[in-house]
Every structure is written in C-alpha cells, then in structure tokens.
Amino acid sequence: MLFRIEGVTSAECPSCHRLFCAQCKVPWHGGINCQEFQQQKLKCFMYNVPNYDEKNKKGKAAITSIETETSCRQSPKSFCGICYDFIPENDIVRGSGTCNHPFCANCISNHVAEQLSRSIMEFNCPNPRCFEELKPQHLHPILPQEVIVRWESERLVLHCPVI
C-alpha cells in the first residue's frame, strides 16, 4: 500500500521494486517533470492520431504549430500504450489492420504470451477503449515462432462453453 504525500512523485513498487511515477501512474520518467511528461505524451498522441484536433479532442485538421513543436515529429517516437514509454518508431507495432494503436514490440509480445498462457486464444487490442481483435498475421514479425504456432493451432480448437 502506498500513501499520497504532497510533492513526492517517484515511488517504488513494493512488489516488483521498479520505480514509477505516483502522480502520472506510469513507469518512472526520469529527467523530466510530470508536467513535461504529460505534454510530451499529448504531443506524441497527437502525432499518432491522424488529423487530430487538440481543441476539440477529435480527429479533424491537426494544428500545424503544434505539429512542428512535437518532439515525436522531430525524432520519430511513439507512445507505447502498455509501458507508457516513448519508443523509437522502428520498434513500434500497430494493433491490427484497422486499429492503429502503438505498442512497443516487447510489450505486445508479452501481452500475447500472457493471454496464451491463460488459454485465451482470441483477444483484443490492449487499449481499453479498442475492441479490435488482434490477429497472428499482424504480429508475425515480432512474435517468437513457437508463440505464433501455438496461437494459430489453438484458434482452430473448439472448446466446450460449459466447462
């Protein structure tokens, strides 16, 4: 159990002993304060959503001045929706054909492996607001071969819904 203490942002998880930001509720973002982190996160979000309109929070014409400021635009990075870290674009995997949510290859690999270990063979994008199903063919380049084989073969098995 952690207690909120005014002004303290860095905390250590009592279970895994990793540092995280208690204010932002993400892994520790060393080197920048919470306000800078939130601004950078928003800018990367805007860069990853086509035609994002910051004022209306909807997909319309993007604001050019913000796009030119965006650190993600200057050095292509995306914001992983699982580990909440800024990842170089070449290490990013998109959810599926229609879902475009960015995740780092390591996080999405772990997500798939965890689902398979719990015998869940059909699952959605890890973004809680997205219900797009992940398919093996979208993740072939980053998943270990044994995970792909298990995923594809288990999807063909029909399980009794009563048990």
TrEMBL record:
Q: Does the keyword Zinc-finger apply?
A: yes
Q: Give yes or no: UniProt keyword Phosphoprotein.
A: no
One example of the protein's molecular function in GO is: ubiquitin-protein transferase activity
Residues in RING-type domain copies: 80-129
According to UniProt, this protein's pathway is:
Protein modification; protein ubiquitination
Keyword set, alphabetical order: Metal-binding, Ubl conjugation pathway, Zinc, Zinc-finger
Family annotation (SUPFAM superfamilies):
RING/U-box
Q: Which InterPro entries match?
A: E3_UB_ligase_RBR, IBR_dom, Znf_C3HC4_RING-type, Znf_RING, Znf_RING/FYVE/PHD, Znf_RING_CS
Alphabetically, which GO biological process terms does the record hold? protein ubiquitination
Q: Which cofactor does it need?
A: Zn(2+)
Biological role stated in the UniProt entry: Might act as an E3 ubiquitin-protein ligase, or as part of E3 complex, which accepts ubiquitin from specific E2 ubiquitin-conjugating enzymes and then transfers it to substrates.
Q: Family assignment?
A: Belongs to the RBR family. Ariadne subfamily.
Q: What is this protein called?
A: Putative E3 ubiquitin-protein ligase RNF217-like protein
Species of origin: Trifolium pratense (Red clover)
